Amino acid sequence: MIEPRLDHLVHAGPDLDALVAEFTERTGVAPVLGGRHVGRGTRNHLVGLGGNAYLELIGPDDPAVRPLPEVFGIDRLTASRLAAWVVRPDDLDATVQRARDGGYDPGDIAALSRRTPDGRLLEWRLTPNRGDRFGGLAPALIDWQDARHPTADGLPQLRLVSLVGRHPDPPAVESALAALDVQLDVTTGPPGLEAVLDTPHGRITL
């Protein structure tokens, strides 16, 4: 089952232009430019996954600039990977507090922003991409506040068929997921997320 409050998946790479070109060739769908993250050195491209969910391809705004951004471990990547997933709870602050009461700390909420290609500034709040995320299996939490959601801009579409996780210690991950009140099927294996997408070129796995 796919978590119904899924906001987006994060596919990160050390060279965003190369990642977008590879993704376009593989799927037959070209992600559109989302914009630049203010003060973070990253840029993203987006493709819809149906409903209010989307896939974010993220990487350095300029891959020649060193050091590379630390966000989503981009500075340590040698190849692209499905690095994270993000859930949009009804009440971000209450969800963070309940998770802490349940034994898992998702981190302090931070204010972030992105400048769109047409000059609009999108501002939102997000739990940070650091601390123990179990290899990306524990999701970040987002509150878009009054910002226009990216899926409202007519993104090109693919269909998300499934999202699952693997980890050497599934019960530890499941405890964190329960504290966050989110759903993800987790099996034993090397830590990581796996998403299956239906595309014009057939079904693919990220």
Automatic annotation (TrEMBL):
Domain of life per record: Bacteria
Pfam families: Glyoxalase_3
VOC domain mapped to chain residues: 5-139
Listed Gene3D superfamilies: 2,3-Dihydroxybiphenyl 1,2-Dioxygenase, domain 1
Descriptive protein name: Glyoxalase-like protein
Naturally occurring in which organism (per UniProt): Pseudonocardia kunmingensis
Taxonomic classification: Bacteria, Bacillati, Actinomycetota, Actinomycetes, Pseudonocardiales
